[in-house]
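Comment thread on ticket #2218

A.B. wrote:
> Attaching the input chain for the structure job we discussed in standup.
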Amino acid sequence: MPDSDWWRSAVIYQVYVRSFADADGDGTGDLAGVRAKLPYLAQLGVDALWFNPWYASPMADGGYDVADYRAIHPSFGTLAEAEKLIEEAAGHGIRTIVDIVPNHVSEAHPWFRAALAEGPGGPSRDLFHFRPGRGEHGELAPNDWRSEFGGPAWTRLPDGEWYLHLFAPEQPDLNWAHPAVRTEHEEILRFWFERGVAGVRIDSAALPAKDPALPDFTPGQDPHPYLDRDELHDIYRSWRAVADRYGAVFVGEVWLPDSERFARYLRPDELHTAFNFAFLSCPWEPERLRAAIRDTLAEHAPVGAPATWVLCNHDITRTVTRYGRAETGFDFAAKRFGTPTDPALGTRRARAAALLSLALPGATYLYQGEELGLPEAEIPREHIEDPMHARSGGVDPGRDGCRVPLPWTADAPHAGFSTGEPWLPQPPGWAAHAADLQDGDPASMLTLYRTALALRRATPGLGDGPLEWLESPEEVLAFRRPGGVLCLVNLGAGPVPVPEGTELLLASGALGADGALPSDTAVWLREPAAA
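C.D. wrote:
> Ran it. Output below, let me know if you need it in another format.
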């Protein structure tokens, strides 16, 4: 595969900087901490690092409220350090992907500050969605839209006008019908591509365009007033023209149930890839997983785009915990405090899921700490920072449980994350998952991931390419990749035989004494070469 097509088969490691590694001891992860761990990431075997927003931000929503795209958050470091990190990562053979959040900015962004200062009718207000309210005295919101975080999507200002925010009030939505918004974002792309960034992840990629009339929402209305509007495709075609001049790539966060609409974002002149949420949220059930994989490959085929596979990210309950629960799928609306889980069962399934995802055609995203088998942490209410918790009235535990700072060294303060108090508390027993304890342990999750990534890179047939389903019992996922590499995953209650005459490449757990594949276990095999 040409080097320019690296993204089609890449394993991309997601770095949530705030929780990765802290070099200066203030309790917050930073870019110097990431730089110090580049040898670890190179040994892990990843192709690229995707960084959640590292920009200047008041951190009302974990950095997704961006105040300045051309500056690094002071807690993380400086622009010069970011440039050095990009360069040093490249020296390890690791590319860099940054996050862009086109739907909104921070209330601290200079544009929004100017809009507030100018008052009603000021030109800066045209960069956002300001409207007078409804009702006799403008006391009612301009429409009935709801925030993705719960509650109304409008906030009223003292001057009487309301502004739109599909997320938190600190994140005012931009008006993408204004040419200055489009020009600014294309300049932001150039700014980072000039600094050696190889790609951009687009947050909430299906949301930026709005119906200019801002009508009330009617379920089932077509087109939707703010989701997946046709105007978006012209925006992303313009972005693609910018990226192509630098050989850079895009991955979009596109949550859409309609596979045909989803595939439109992946046409050859738009985005290169998009996240696969059907697979990420799928329960640990053979028919559901089989259908998610088949549907994913089918919806990507017409546009020639590679699929992406991900088990967890900075918003999603960690895999070990989710797969150990009675309900193994993921739904934001279902998150609750105190949901019981079986860690041993979840770990077995997470190990099997790792081999499954890495054997599928296309690119794989690996969220930091998944390679350590970290569980979801239940954060004490008084320490929760995620606005989803507050906006839910305290019902939703929020997303902080998958954002707890990583454990690096078992016998060091705060498990080696920082010499200072971490910004989120690490739960009891966190040090037992430390990377230094897992290093060299043949049974550890870290060793499994390192071995799988090395095999994936060295084995022709893994990565992008065709997949052929094999006949198998209903509870077993079985498929062949080019070169005779087989992947079998047993989701049933009892052991199943593996094909005779095959060579064992890697297993997520110990096979039975008779060589059978136990429950909740995956295996990579190689068929004998044809005579």
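A.B. wrote:
> Thanks. Noting for the ticket: DSSP finds 14 helices and 18 strands in the chain.
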